[in-house]
Protein backbone atom coordinates (compact mmCIF):
# COMPACT_ATOMS: atom_id res chain seq x y z
CA UNK A 1 0.00 0.00 0.00
CA UNK A 2 1.47 3.35 -0.92
CA UNK A 3 -0.54 5.28 1.65
CA UNK A 4 1.45 5.13 4.93
CA UNK A 5 -1.78 5.29 6.90
CA UNK A 6 -4.24 3.07 5.14
CA UNK A 7 -7.91 3.92 5.22
CA UNK A 8 -10.14 1.14 6.47
CA UNK A 9 -13.93 1.07 6.64
CA UNK A 10 -15.49 -1.24 9.21
CA UNK A 11 -18.98 -2.54 8.41
CA UNK A 12 -20.59 -3.68 11.65
CA UNK A 13 -23.49 -6.12 11.46
CA UNK A 14 -24.01 -7.15 15.10
CA UNK A 15 -23.23 -10.56 16.62
CA UNK A 16 -21.46 -11.39 19.87
CA UNK A 17 -18.65 -8.93 19.16
CA UNK A 18 -21.27 -6.17 19.40
CA UNK A 19 -23.22 -7.72 22.26
CA UNK A 20 -23.85 -6.56 25.79
CA UNK A 21 -26.39 -7.62 28.37
CA UNK A 22 -29.89 -6.71 27.18
CA UNK A 23 -33.05 -5.98 29.19
CA UNK A 24 -33.97 -9.65 29.40
CA UNK A 25 -30.57 -10.54 30.92
CA UNK A 26 -29.15 -12.23 27.82
CA UNK A 27 -26.52 -10.79 25.48
CA UNK A 28 -27.89 -8.76 22.56
CA UNK A 29 -26.11 -7.03 19.64
CA UNK A 30 -26.39 -3.40 20.74
CA UNK A 31 -22.93 -1.88 20.25
CA UNK A 32 -22.36 0.25 17.18
CA UNK A 33 -19.27 0.05 14.99
CA UNK A 34 -18.02 3.30 16.57
CA UNK A 35 -18.29 1.74 20.02
CA UNK A 36 -16.39 -1.34 18.85
CA UNK A 37 -13.58 0.89 17.55
CA UNK A 38 -13.38 2.99 20.68
CA UNK A 39 -12.79 -0.15 22.76
CA UNK A 40 -9.51 -0.75 20.89
CA UNK A 41 -7.36 2.40 21.03
CA UNK A 42 -4.44 0.59 19.37
CA UNK A 43 -6.40 0.63 16.10
CA UNK A 44 -5.34 4.27 15.75
CA UNK A 45 -1.73 3.19 15.30
CA UNK A 46 -2.63 1.00 12.30
CA UNK A 47 -4.95 2.97 10.07
CA UNK A 48 -7.55 5.69 9.69
CA UNK A 49 -10.62 3.68 10.49
CA UNK A 50 -14.24 4.67 10.14
CA UNK A 51 -17.28 2.63 11.04
CA UNK A 52 -20.52 2.05 9.14
CA UNK A 53 -23.51 0.39 10.80
CA UNK A 54 -24.51 -2.05 8.06
CA UNK A 55 -26.87 -4.21 10.15
CA UNK A 56 -27.36 -4.71 13.91
CA UNK A 57 -28.49 -8.31 14.26
CA UNK A 58 -27.50 -11.79 15.39
CA UNK A 59 -25.86 -13.40 12.39
CA UNK A 60 -28.55 -15.99 11.80
CA UNK A 61 -30.78 -13.03 10.82
CA UNK A 62 -28.47 -12.15 7.93
CA UNK A 63 -29.39 -13.34 4.43
CA UNK A 64 -27.64 -13.89 1.14
CA UNK A 65 -29.33 -10.70 -0.07
CA UNK A 66 -27.54 -8.88 2.77
CA UNK A 67 -24.19 -10.23 1.55
CA UNK A 68 -24.95 -9.14 -2.03
CA UNK A 69 -25.71 -5.66 -0.64
CA UNK A 70 -22.55 -5.83 1.51
CA UNK A 71 -20.38 -6.59 -1.52
CA UNK A 72 -21.87 -3.55 -3.27
CA UNK A 73 -21.24 -1.40 -0.17
CA UNK A 74 -17.62 -2.60 -0.06
CA UNK A 75 -17.28 -1.74 -3.73
CA UNK A 76 -18.55 1.79 -3.07
CA UNK A 77 -16.25 2.25 -0.05
CA UNK A 78 -13.21 1.18 -2.05
CA UNK A 79 -14.22 3.39 -4.99
CA UNK A 80 -14.41 6.26 -2.48
CA UNK A 81 -10.82 5.66 -1.37
CA UNK A 82 -10.81 2.88 1.24
CA UNK A 83 -7.71 0.67 1.08
CA UNK A 84 -9.43 -2.19 2.85
CA UNK A 85 -12.62 -3.13 4.66
CA UNK A 86 -13.49 -5.12 7.77
CA UNK A 87 -16.82 -6.77 8.45
CA UNK A 88 -17.75 -7.61 12.04
CA UNK A 89 -20.52 -10.14 12.51
CA UNK A 90 -21.83 -13.00 14.58
CA UNK A 91 -19.82 -16.17 14.31
CA UNK A 92 -22.72 -18.57 13.69
CA UNK A 93 -23.04 -17.89 9.97
CA UNK A 94 -19.67 -16.25 9.33
CA UNK A 95 -18.43 -19.21 7.28
CA UNK A 96 -21.37 -18.76 4.90
CA UNK A 97 -21.31 -14.97 4.54
CA UNK A 98 -17.52 -15.02 4.16
CA UNK A 99 -17.74 -17.64 1.41
CA UNK A 100 -20.43 -15.65 -0.40
CA UNK A 101 -18.38 -12.47 -0.06
CA UNK A 102 -15.27 -14.24 -1.34
CA UNK A 103 -17.19 -15.05 -4.54
CA UNK A 104 -18.89 -11.67 -4.90
CA UNK A 105 -16.05 -9.28 -4.02
CA UNK A 106 -13.27 -9.38 -6.61
CA UNK A 107 -11.28 -6.25 -5.81
CA UNK A 108 -7.70 -6.16 -4.56
CA UNK A 109 -8.57 -4.43 -1.30
CA UNK A 110 -8.83 -7.00 1.49
CA UNK A 111 -12.29 -7.60 2.97
CA UNK A 112 -11.56 -9.08 6.39
CA UNK A 113 -14.33 -10.69 8.41
CA UNK A 114 -14.17 -11.20 12.14
CA UNK A 115 -16.29 -11.50 15.27
CA UNK A 116 -16.06 -12.78 18.82
CA UNK A 117 -16.98 -15.81 20.87
CA UNK A 118 -17.07 -13.99 24.22
CA UNK A 119 -19.13 -10.82 24.42
CA UNK A 120 -17.77 -7.55 25.78
CA UNK A 121 -19.11 -8.17 29.29
CA UNK A 122 -17.28 -11.48 29.77
CA UNK A 123 -13.78 -12.03 31.17
CA UNK A 124 -11.42 -12.71 28.27
CA UNK A 125 -13.67 -11.05 25.69
CA UNK A 126 -11.98 -11.79 22.35
CA UNK A 127 -13.67 -9.12 20.22
CA UNK A 128 -11.04 -6.38 20.72
CA UNK A 129 -8.14 -8.74 19.93
CA UNK A 130 -9.93 -10.07 16.86
CA UNK A 131 -10.72 -6.56 15.65
CA UNK A 132 -7.10 -5.50 16.09
CA UNK A 133 -5.86 -8.60 14.23
CA UNK A 134 -8.41 -7.96 11.47
CA UNK A 135 -7.14 -4.39 11.09
CA UNK A 136 -3.53 -5.57 10.94
CA UNK A 137 -4.41 -8.02 8.17
CA UNK A 138 -6.59 -5.49 6.34
CA UNK A 139 -3.69 -3.01 6.36
CA UNK A 140 -1.10 -5.59 5.32
CA UNK A 141 0.24 -5.47 1.75
CA UNK A 142 0.49 -9.27 1.95
CA UNK A 143 -3.29 -9.55 2.12
CA UNK A 144 -3.93 -7.54 -1.03
CA UNK A 145 -5.43 -9.54 -3.86
CA UNK A 146 -6.70 -12.31 -1.59
CA UNK A 147 -10.24 -10.95 -1.42
CA UNK A 148 -12.39 -11.93 1.54
CA UNK A 149 -10.57 -13.44 4.52
CA UNK A 150 -11.60 -14.61 7.97
CA UNK A 151 -9.32 -13.44 10.78
CA UNK A 152 -9.99 -14.97 14.17
CA UNK A 153 -7.91 -15.94 17.19
CA UNK A 154 -4.76 -14.62 15.49
CA UNK A 155 -5.20 -16.88 12.45
CA UNK A 156 -6.02 -16.03 8.84
CA UNK A 157 -8.42 -18.38 7.06
CA UNK A 158 -9.76 -18.68 3.54
CA UNK A 159 -13.57 -18.56 3.50
CA UNK A 160 -13.82 -21.63 1.25
CA UNK A 161 -12.26 -23.80 3.95
CA UNK A 162 -13.19 -22.23 7.27
CA UNK A 163 -15.92 -23.59 9.56
CA UNK A 164 -17.14 -22.82 13.03
CA UNK A 165 -16.22 -25.99 14.89
CA UNK A 166 -17.14 -25.39 18.54
CA UNK A 167 -20.04 -23.68 20.32
CA UNK A 168 -17.93 -21.66 22.78
CA UNK A 169 -14.18 -22.09 22.22
CA UNK A 170 -12.46 -18.87 21.00
CA UNK A 171 -10.42 -21.10 18.65
CA UNK A 172 -13.66 -22.22 17.03
CA UNK A 173 -12.69 -21.39 13.43
CA UNK A 174 -10.89 -24.24 11.69
CA UNK A 175 -9.92 -24.96 8.12
CA UNK A 176 -9.80 -28.74 8.27
CA UNK A 177 -8.84 -29.41 4.66
CA UNK A 178 -5.94 -27.01 4.24
CA UNK A 179 -5.33 -25.22 7.54
CA UNK A 180 -5.08 -21.47 8.07
CA UNK A 181 -3.13 -19.57 5.42
CA UNK A 182 -1.47 -17.22 7.87
CA UNK A 183 -1.21 -15.85 11.39
CA UNK A 184 -0.45 -12.74 13.42
CA UNK A 185 2.45 -12.62 15.86
CA UNK A 186 3.53 -9.54 17.84
CA UNK A 187 1.41 -7.44 15.44
CA UNK A 188 3.20 -8.85 12.40
CA UNK A 189 1.00 -10.39 9.71
CA UNK A 190 2.23 -13.60 8.10
CA UNK A 191 0.54 -14.85 4.94
CA UNK A 192 2.30 -18.16 4.46
CA UNK A 193 0.10 -19.64 1.70
CA UNK A 194 -1.88 -18.22 -1.20
CA UNK A 195 -4.95 -19.85 -2.76
CA UNK A 196 -4.69 -21.88 -5.97
CA UNK A 197 -7.41 -19.76 -7.60
CA UNK A 198 -9.71 -16.84 -6.97
CA UNK A 199 -13.19 -17.25 -8.39
CA UNK A 200 -15.77 -14.57 -9.07
CA UNK A 201 -19.52 -14.45 -9.48
CA UNK A 202 -20.74 -11.04 -10.62
CA UNK A 203 -24.32 -10.91 -9.39
CA UNK A 204 -26.59 -8.02 -8.60
CA UNK A 205 -29.99 -9.05 -7.39
CA UNK A 206 -32.85 -7.29 -5.71
CA UNK A 207 -33.30 -8.88 -2.24
CA UNK A 208 -36.51 -10.68 -3.18
CA UNK A 209 -34.83 -12.37 -6.15
CA UNK A 210 -32.38 -14.56 -4.21
CA UNK A 211 -33.10 -18.15 -5.20
CA UNK A 212 -34.19 -20.41 -2.31
CA UNK A 213 -32.11 -23.59 -2.02
CA UNK A 214 -32.86 -26.35 0.50
CA UNK A 215 -30.20 -28.25 2.45
CA UNK A 216 -30.94 -31.78 3.63
CA UNK A 217 -28.63 -33.77 5.90
CA UNK A 218 -28.96 -37.49 5.26
CA UNK A 219 -29.29 -39.59 8.42
CA UNK A 220 -29.94 -43.21 9.27
CA UNK A 221 -33.04 -44.50 7.47
CA UNK A 222 -33.62 -41.36 5.36
CA UNK A 223 -36.14 -42.27 2.67
CA UNK A 224 -36.39 -38.95 0.85
CA UNK A 225 -40.07 -38.33 1.59
CA UNK A 226 -39.42 -34.62 2.22
CA UNK A 227 -38.04 -34.15 -1.27
CA UNK A 228 -41.38 -34.22 -3.08
CA UNK A 229 -42.48 -31.12 -1.18
CA UNK A 230 -39.56 -28.96 -2.31
CA UNK A 231 -40.81 -27.76 -5.73
CA UNK A 232 -44.25 -26.83 -4.41
CA UNK A 233 -42.62 -24.95 -1.48
CA UNK A 234 -40.79 -22.76 -3.99
CA UNK A 235 -37.29 -24.19 -3.69
CA UNK A 236 -35.24 -23.89 -6.87
CA UNK A 237 -32.41 -26.23 -5.91
CA UNK A 238 -31.31 -28.78 -3.32
CA UNK A 239 -28.06 -29.61 -1.59
CA UNK A 240 -27.76 -33.02 0.04
CA UNK A 241 -25.25 -33.73 2.78
CA UNK A 242 -24.77 -37.42 2.17
CA UNK A 243 -23.09 -39.84 4.54
CA UNK A 244 -19.34 -40.45 4.26
CA UNK A 245 -17.98 -39.99 0.75
CA UNK A 246 -21.45 -38.98 -0.57
CA UNK A 247 -24.06 -41.68 -0.04
CA UNK A 248 -27.78 -41.99 0.66
CA UNK A 249 -29.96 -44.98 1.58
CA UNK A 250 -31.28 -46.80 -1.50
CA UNK A 251 -34.85 -45.74 -0.56
CA UNK A 252 -33.92 -42.11 -1.21
CA UNK A 253 -32.48 -42.70 -4.68
CA UNK A 254 -35.70 -42.60 -6.73
CA UNK A 255 -37.04 -39.37 -5.12
CA UNK A 256 -33.62 -37.76 -5.55
CA UNK A 257 -33.36 -38.82 -9.19
CA UNK A 258 -36.87 -37.44 -9.86
CA UNK A 259 -35.92 -34.13 -8.26
CA UNK A 260 -32.64 -33.92 -10.19
CA UNK A 261 -34.69 -33.95 -13.39
CA UNK A 262 -36.52 -30.75 -12.41
CA UNK A 263 -33.99 -28.77 -10.35
CA UNK A 264 -30.24 -28.86 -9.68
CA UNK A 265 -29.33 -31.27 -6.88
CA UNK A 266 -25.82 -31.02 -5.43
CA UNK A 267 -24.23 -33.80 -3.39
CA UNK A 268 -21.83 -33.04 -0.52
CA UNK A 269 -20.59 -34.97 2.49
CA UNK A 270 -21.93 -34.53 6.00
CA UNK A 271 -18.53 -35.43 7.49
CA UNK A 272 -17.29 -31.84 7.51
CA UNK A 273 -13.93 -32.49 5.87
CA UNK A 274 -12.58 -34.18 2.76
CA UNK A 275 -13.63 -34.24 -0.87
CA UNK A 276 -16.70 -35.97 -2.23
CA UNK A 277 -15.91 -39.29 -3.87
CA UNK A 278 -16.57 -39.72 -7.60
CA UNK A 279 -15.82 -43.30 -8.54
CA UNK A 280 -15.21 -45.55 -5.55
CA UNK A 281 -18.56 -47.12 -4.52
CA UNK A 282 -21.10 -48.71 -6.84
CA UNK A 283 -24.09 -49.78 -4.66
CA UNK A 284 -27.54 -48.13 -5.03
CA UNK A 285 -27.30 -44.71 -3.36
CA UNK A 286 -23.52 -44.57 -3.78
CA UNK A 287 -21.76 -41.56 -5.24
CA UNK A 288 -21.34 -43.35 -8.60
CA UNK A 289 -25.07 -44.15 -8.67
CA UNK A 290 -26.13 -40.60 -7.74
CA UNK A 291 -23.73 -38.81 -10.08
CA UNK A 292 -24.93 -41.04 -12.94
CA UNK A 293 -28.50 -39.97 -12.21
CA UNK A 294 -27.71 -36.30 -12.78
CA UNK A 295 -26.79 -35.23 -9.27
CA UNK A 296 -23.92 -32.68 -9.27
CA UNK A 297 -20.85 -33.37 -7.13
CA UNK A 298 -19.98 -30.63 -4.63
CA UNK A 299 -16.26 -31.50 -4.51
CA UNK A 300 -14.68 -30.21 -1.31
CA UNK A 301 -17.55 -27.84 -0.46
CA UNK A 302 -19.59 -28.66 2.61
CA UNK A 303 -23.38 -28.44 2.60
CA UNK A 304 -23.82 -24.81 3.73
CA UNK A 305 -21.15 -23.57 1.30
CA UNK A 306 -22.57 -25.59 -1.60
CA UNK A 307 -25.95 -24.09 -0.77
CA UNK A 308 -24.50 -20.56 -0.95
CA UNK A 309 -22.88 -21.28 -4.31
CA UNK A 310 -25.98 -22.89 -5.80
CA UNK A 311 -28.20 -20.08 -4.58
CA UNK A 312 -25.90 -17.42 -6.06
CA UNK A 313 -25.74 -19.26 -9.38
CA UNK A 314 -29.51 -19.67 -9.57
CA UNK A 315 -30.00 -16.05 -8.53
CA UNK A 316 -27.82 -15.07 -11.51
CA UNK A 317 -29.92 -17.40 -13.71
CA UNK A 318 -27.09 -19.84 -14.47
CA UNK A 319 -28.18 -22.90 -16.45
CA UNK A 320 -27.46 -26.47 -15.36
CA UNK A 321 -24.29 -26.74 -17.50
CA UNK A 322 -22.81 -23.63 -15.92
CA UNK A 323 -23.82 -24.83 -12.45
CA UNK A 324 -22.01 -28.15 -13.01
CA UNK A 325 -18.95 -26.26 -14.26
CA UNK A 326 -18.94 -23.92 -11.26
CA UNK A 327 -19.02 -26.83 -8.82
CA UNK A 328 -16.39 -28.75 -10.77
CA UNK A 329 -14.05 -25.75 -10.63
CA UNK A 330 -14.77 -24.11 -7.28
CA UNK A 331 -15.18 -27.47 -5.54
CA UNK A 332 -11.93 -28.98 -6.82
CA UNK A 333 -8.69 -26.95 -6.74
CA UNK A 334 -6.48 -27.33 -9.84
CA UNK A 335 -9.20 -28.96 -11.95
CA UNK A 336 -9.57 -25.94 -14.22
CA UNK A 337 -9.02 -22.21 -14.59
CA UNK A 338 -10.70 -19.88 -12.09
CA UNK A 339 -14.47 -19.69 -12.47
CA UNK A 340 -15.21 -16.11 -13.52
CA UNK A 341 -18.80 -15.37 -14.43
CA UNK A 342 -20.81 -12.20 -14.77
CA UNK A 343 -24.53 -12.78 -14.66
CA UNK A 344 -26.76 -10.62 -16.84
CA UNK A 345 -26.96 -7.25 -15.09
CA UNK A 346 -24.22 -8.36 -12.68
CA UNK A 347 -21.05 -6.55 -11.75
N1 LIG B 1 -25.81 -16.43 17.31
C1 LIG B 1 -25.19 -15.16 17.47
C2 LIG B 1 -24.64 -14.63 16.15
O1 LIG B 1 -24.15 -15.39 15.34
C3 LIG B 1 -24.12 -15.15 18.49
C4 LIG B 1 -22.91 -15.97 18.10
C5 LIG B 1 -21.68 -15.15 17.87
O2 LIG B 1 -21.71 -14.01 17.43
O3 LIG B 1 -20.63 -15.67 18.19
O4 LIG B 1 -24.70 -13.45 15.96
Q: What does the model show?
A:
By secondary structure, this protein is α/β, with parallel strands linked by helices. It has nine helices and 18 strands. It has two domains: 7-195, L-asparaginase, N-terminal domain (Rossmann fold, 3-Layer(aba) Sandwich); 209-342, Rossmann fold (3-Layer(aba) Sandwich). Helix content is 25%, strand content 22%. The strands form five sheets. It has an eight-stranded mixed beta sheet with strand order 4-1-5-6-7-8-11-12, with helices on both faces. A hairpin with a 2-residue loop joins strand 7 and strand 8. The site of glutamic acid has 10 residues, from loops.
Describe the structure concisely for a colleague.
With 347 residues, the protein is an alpha/beta fold. The chain has helices at residues 33-38, 64-79, 94-104, 127-138, 229-232, 253-260, 287-292, 303-315, 320-330; strands at residues 7-14, 19-21, 27-29, 48-57, 84-88, 111-114, 148-152, 155-157, 163-164, 173-174, 182-185, 188-191, 200-202, 213-217, 237-242, 265-269, 296-297, 340-342.
Task: Identify the notable features of this structure and list them briefly.
347 residues; globular; Rossmann fold; 18 strands
